[in-house]
Amino acid sequence: MDFIKRNNVCIQGDGDAILLYAHGFGCSQAMWNRITPAFNHSHKQILFDYVGSGQSDLSAFNVERYSSLNGYAQDVIDICDTLNLHENVTFVGHSVSCSIGLIACLLRPQLFNQFILIGASPCFINFPPDYMGGFEREDLVDLLALMDQNYLGWANYLSPIVAGEQQNGAISGELSDSFCSTDPLVTKTFAKATFFADNRDEFARVHKPCLILQNSHDSLTPVSVGEYMHRQLKNSQLTIFDIAGHCAHMSHPALVIDAMKKNFCLQSDTR
To answer: What is the per-residue pLDDT across 166-217, written as a single tens digit (0 to 9) for each?
Structure first.
């Protein structure tokens, strides 16, 4: 299979170091376009769409494979194998892709050297008193039921929550357009895999350097989740931005770029 076409893999930049970007649920590689210009002269940057998302090959979508985050992790490994990447990959993930990246790391530990985790959550469900992921299971069941009943209404409901915008709806509109452009079967399959996953054990088993970027007012991942991950990931740094929303790389890209450069020595060319 042509994995480059399957996942709409795009490569930009001319550096030796490698950044691999993985988008979140309902999104596409286009969501990274505010970040990538900062690293074009210092890094080779690899972007892709999960099967069923963005401009990927929809005919390659398989419900059984993509009902688990392991299927998406295999996408990551397939892409790296096709590009002959064997080590020293910096994985930049948003939301559920943070879990996907860490699963891929456990499957192929030598492939990755560090992780940048934006809006990560190992589990969105509350398991009191030890873990509060932000949602009761019944809330997530209702959210998926809304998707069945009114797909456009679901997209219009969820997108401003994810964007966290009060004054400017541009990012909310961009997310809503992305949600609505994705096949409903793909979206529901990815949603179930995302919101009902529990990858807390996987997070505890990863010892690669991790930079956790957490927003102080995120309706999907409370600060307590970022603090939990920081405790679980023994070789991690936690940076909390005093902003709202779940997509800092879209709403406040300068903060993300600065944190990436300061914490992980991802220096861009200043010529």
So the answer is: 645 889 999 999 999 899 999 999 999 999 999 999 999 999 999 999 999 9
- For the domain spanning 3-264, the CATH number is 3.40.50.1820
List of residues 6+ apart from 76 with CB closer than 8 A: 20, 22, 91, 100, 101, 104
Residue 163's closest CA among 240, 92, 239, 220?
220
Catalytic residue flag (residue 43)? no
- Asked if pLDDT for residue 108 goes beyond 90, the answer is yes
The pTM assigned to this predicted structure is 0.94
**Residue carrying structure tokens 């807390």:** 200
Q: Quote the DSSP letter at residue 128.
A: T
Distance of alpha carbon 32 from alpha carbon 22, whole angstroms: 9
Is 95 a catalytic site residue? yes
- Which residue is catalytic, options 28, 42, 53, 95? 95
Answer whether residue 15 shows pLDDT above 90: no
Report the C-alpha gap between 18 and 85 in whole angstroms: 9
In this predicted structure, the answer to whether residue 96 has a pLDDT above a threshold of 50 is: yes
Beta-carbon contacts of residue 43 (< 8 Å; ≥ 6 apart) = 13, 15, 17, 18, 19, 90, 266
Grouping H, G, I as helix, E, B as strand and the rest as coil, residue 218 is: coil
**Local confidence band at 265 (pLDDT 50, 70, 90 cut-offs):** low
The one-character DSSP state at 19 is E
Average pLDDT over all residues of the chain? 93
Active-site annotation holds for 218: yes
Among 42, 218, 236, 251, the one annotated catalytic? 218
